[in-house]
Design a protein that fits this description.
The structure holds 2 protein chains of 2 kinds. Chain A is 30% helix and 32% strand. Chain A contains 11 helices and 24 strands. In chain A, helix 7 packs antiparallel against helix 9, helix 8 crosses helix 11 and helix 9 runs antiparallel to helix 10. The two termini of chain A are 41 Å apart. The N terminus of chain A is likely disordered. By secondary structure, chain B is an all-alpha fold. Chain B has one domain. The chains are: A alpha+beta, B mainly alpha. The structure holds protoporphyrin IX containing FE. Protoporphyrin IX containing FE sits at the interface of chains A and B.
Chain lengths: 551, 330
């Protein structure tokens, strides 16, 4: 490196890893050469630009820019991971929202500026690895470089005198180095012979594998991710979900998704177990286990049982199912004045706290004189507080489980043709007819009870109670490849950081009735243990000579 | 003994360890102050030591890496003034003692909870600080880095006290999302990486200071017994790349776990973003070390920025940012 004797540089060059011109190991360019030459011409400019793009400095600056550009993505909610957070941000800071949204900060990781940085980085990366790979393939076939004239300036230089002759010394040096994994080559020197040895090509191989696997991950994620999809579905106990676009509550297809990617299967929730432990400090129950007992069926087969737990997805063909959430789904029946059923069914109530106090919405658009909306709470284990409100003491439901509903009339907005969230009710346009803002108190029911609706509209009955599980279905045909590339990244990194790449020389010159033997090494890259390795080689070599002369 | 009693003993051990670290810290600071005056007494020698050792390192090694010990004569003159002063040895022994108590605290916590004790922020801090000390002790076997004693004990005491005062929680069962072998692996490797990054940052800080002193600053006399900036830089690099290897593994293990728990291996969740940022900053650091014009102080700054991001990720992000990882109950 820096102080390698000049004359050896040409010999050494062919097996040296190829590096960008501003790599620390490359010779400092002579002033006036290269960069600022006049009359570059178009090709010259392109070459100049390419060289800039594939320089270490550019890679470094782009890396730092990438880190910096990722920061905003952690400061504000992202559409991809937290869409509700984005809506909330919009409601709370309408002014700054406009500016940030125009900048794309709410989808940082697909924004033009973020993409530009990483795409440039990867162009630079490809421009960097291709020539290096070619060079490395050649270097692996090349011979170790010629022995330098003077070894004394190299690392760990040691000189000993030995009674053995030159031939024996060189023979043993070759054997010792070979057994230590070196590639060896003899080079005669004035008055004797020498062995030149090199090892650690795996270091450069690892470096190239690492960088290439980075490209691999990017390409598989970018292209492969486009073929997959993920979708969420709330499955209420005793109902089945069939894998089809219409069946999902929400669905995110990849760019290249087609409906054929939906494998045909059905999933039914038979039962749901939640186990909880009371935290005495907070008085809140903590979940310790969730198990959704499912039945699964693919076309032409019978229902089979399957348990789904958090952290334990199960696979149906190439689709994976995950347990994301769960809660209670009270079953209600709404009847008109004549007793005809206007609405019946379980409604999933979303948990608000660890004791499963839950909130939900029931919409009855047809069958009554007016459209009705219910918004209220479900308390599995209710306790009335002094101010008249309720809370839940535990997540366990029983006979006392309480359903408390405010009732609204007006246009529910279901006819407009736009999809509306099943879990929200826009009450701004509605009139409350039972609840704190109405003459009638909110409706409170335990299982089996029926209440009259205000204005003589009919009745509502709390018919039963079910559990629901919210399940995510996920299909990504390239996931395995991403893992393979990730492991190559790790493996390549370990090789390139921890395999030492070094050269060793053993020189034997006849000296009177014996031989003068010199040892020295040269590091290629970071190599903290080189001096020790040279000392070790010298010791082993002398032991071998010793054994050869006194068998 | 009931789990509650064991947990109480664990907390007692935490306080004791912190107390021992505080004493070790004080002794280390006194030691540094002493050095500064001793070096002052040996001024003529010390003044030349910096430049000679720097020149010696680049001439003798002939590589980018300074050859191991073999310090040039002048450098050893300052080192001889206090190679391992009595105070330094006392501080080191105290640190070992603190570490033993600290580990006992973790084991007790684990026994009381009957699970790996790194499931909430208090437990991360408890284990993380022990790993920082552990890495420091481990590296001490290989290279003498006892001159960082004040930094390590100071940092660990501070973190340990902050954790105990602000984020202490009683033992609670693991929520289902955390019941995974990947928790044990992913979190522990992240903590290991953090330990190496912490030591690396300390070495980089020492390197920056030493470089200023070598450039003629007269206000940093306590660095007299420290190695030259180039030796510090090489050591920092080696420690940081080990941290980087662990961090890379953390990233991958985290993605695998996320795939198991949430159905996607990467979703740019806040915590994921920061893990990524840290990884990229350290990749930048490794590149900087290999880029002409960036080796030396500039790359050292990147290592320090990287460790600052690690601390930020662990404190501010955990406490104030919203994200999937937020259920750790602090
Ligand atoms: C996607 C962006 C990149 C990342 C995350 C990255 C990361 C890394 C890491 C972690 C290392 C150290 C491990 C090893 O030696 O394999 C490294 C080394 C290296 N990288 Fe990159 N790199 C990137 C892009 C590039 C580009 C564009 C170039 C070409 C200019 C480049 C050239 C190098 C070189 C020459 C080394 C070896 C350094 C040495 O000799 O010590 N890298 N890179």
């Amino acid at each position: 490196m820096a102080s390698a004797p000049r004359s050896d540089r040409t010999a050494a060059k062919s097996t040296d890893p190829l590096r960008p011109a501003d790599h620390i190991d490359q010779p400092v360019p002579e002033p006036g050469s290269g960069v600022a030459q006049p009359k570059l011409g178009l090709v010259g400019y392109l070459r100049f630009f390419w060289r800039q793009l594939t320089s270490m400095r550019t890679a470094l600056v782009l890396l730092l820019l990438l880190a910096l550009a990722a920061v905003p993505g952690s400061l504000v909610p992202q559409r991809s991971s937290d869409p509700n957070g984005v809506l909330q941000y919009k409601a709370e800071n309408p002014d700054s929202f406009k500016i940030l949204d125009a900048l794309g900060v709410f989808s940082t990781f697909s924004s033009p500026w973020f993409s530009a940085i990483y795409l440039l980085l990867f162009v630079s990366l490809v421009g960097c690895i291709l020539p290096r790979t070619k060079h490395h393939l050649e270097a692996m076939r090349a011979r170790p470089p010629k022995t330098p004239v003077r070894l004394s300036r190299l690392v760990g230089h040691t000189e000993v005198r030995s009674g053995a002759d030159v031939e024996a010394a060189v023979d043993e040096a070759r054997a010792a180095l070979r057994s230590a994994g070196y590639r060896v080559e003899p080079y005669p020197v004035p008055g004797g012979d020498s062995i030149s040895a090199e090892r650690g090509y795996l270091r450069e191989t690892g470096n190239l594998v690492f960088h290439a696997a980075l490209v691999g991950v990017l390409v598989t994620v970018g292209v492969g991710g486009g073929f997959g999809y993920n979708g969420q579905k709330v499955i209420v106990q005793d109902t089945a979900f069939t894998n089809s676009l219409a069946g999902y509550d929400s669905f995110n297809p990849g760019r290249f998704f087609t409906e054929q990617a939906l494998e045909p299967f059905s999933v039914r929730l038979d039962d749901f177990d939640g186990h909880y432990e009371l935290n005495p400090a907070t008085g809140v129950y903590q979940p310790v286990d969730y198990t959704a007992h499912l039945s699964v069926r693919t076309p032409g087969t019978d229902w089979t049982d399957a348990d789904l737990k958090v952290n334990e997805p199960f696979e149906i063909g190439g689709t994976k199912a995950y347990l994301l959430g769960n809660g209670y789904a009270p079953v209600v029946t709404v009847r008109d004045t004549s007793g005809a059923v206007a609405y019946t069914g379980p409604v999933a109530f979303l948990p608000l706290d660890g004791n499963l106090m839950s909130r939900g919405v029931i919409k009855v658009p047809d069958g009554l004189d007016e459209q009705l909306g219910f918004m209220g709470f479900f308390y599995p284990d209710p306790l009335e507080l002094t101010d008249g409100t309720f809370t839940s003491l535990s997540p366990y439901a029983g006979d006392a489980s309480l359903l408390s509903l405010n009732v609204y009339t007006g246009d529910l907005g279901l006819d407009a043709g736009v999809s509306v969230n099943a879990y929200t009710l826009d009450v701004d346009e509605l009139e409350q007819i039972a609840g704190p803002q109405a003459d009638t108190e909110s409706i409170k029911l335990v299982q089996g009870q029926t209440a009259e609706l205000p204005n003589g509209l009919g009745t509502i009955e709390f018919t039963g109670l079910k559990r629901f599980a919210s399940v995510e279905f996920h299909h990504d045909p390239t996931e395995g490849w991403v893992l393979v590339f990730a492991l190559l990244i790790l493996g390549g990194l370990l090789l390139s950081l921890f395999v030492p790449r070094r050269r060793m020389w053993v020189k034997a010159v006849a000296d009177g009735d014996g031989t003068r033997i010199e040892y020295a090494g040269l590091a290629r890259g970071e190599d903290p243990t080189l001096a020790a390795a040279v000392a070790d080689l010298a010791r082993r070599h002398q032991e071998r000579l010793e054994r050869r002369m006194n068998p | 003994m009931t789990p509650t009693t064991i947990a109480a003993y664990s907390l007692l051990a935490v306080y004791s360890a912190a107390a021992v670290y505080v004493i070790a810290f004080i002794v280390s600071v006194v030691d540094l102050a002493r050095r500064s005056s001793e070096v002052l007494a040996a001024q003529p020698l010390a003044a030349s030591a910096g430049s000679v050792s720097a020149a010696g390192a680049s001439a003798s090694s002939g590589t980018t890496v300074a050859a191991p010990p073999r310090p040039p004569a002048a450098a050893s003159a300052t080192a001889v003034a206090s190679p391992a002063s009595r105070l330094q040895r006392v501080a080191f022994a105290l640190t070992v003692l603190g570490f033993v108590i600290h580990v006992a605290a973790i084991v007790l916590r684990g026994v009381a909870a009957s699970r790996a004790p790194w499931a909430n922020m208090f437990e991360f801090a408890l284990t993380g600080t022990a790993v920082i000390v552990g890495v420091y002790l481990l590296v001490s076997i290989w290279r003498d880095v006892r001159y960082l004693s004040a930094y390590i004990t100071g940092l660990v005491t501070l973190l340990l006290m902050l954790a105990t005062m602000n984020v202490y929680v009683d033992i609670v069962p693991l929520p289902p999302a955390l019941q995974s072998a990947w928790l044990v692996v992913h979190v522990f490797v992240a903590i290991l990486g953090t330990g190496f990054f912490a030591l690396g940052a300390g070495l980089s800080i020492a390197q920056l200071l030493q470089a200023r002193r070598e450039a003629g600053s007269s206000s940093l006399r306590f660095l007299g017994g420290f190695p030259g900036s180039e030796t510090l830089e090489n050591l920092a690099y080696r420690v940081n790349v080990i941290g980087f290897a662990f961090w890379t593994f953390t990233l991958i293990a985290g993605a695998i776990w996320a795939e198991h728990a949430w159905g996607r291996y990467w979703g740019w969740d806040t915590k994921e973003v920061w893990t990524f940022i840290i990884w990229v900053v350290y990749a930048g650091y490794i590149h900087a070390r290999a880029t002409r014009g960036w080796r030396g102080s500039r790359s050292a700054w990147l290592a320090i920025v990287g460790f600052t991001a690690v601390l930020f990720n662990f404190t501010i992000v955990n406490l104030f940012f919203k994200g999937f990882h937020a259920y750790s109950g602090l």
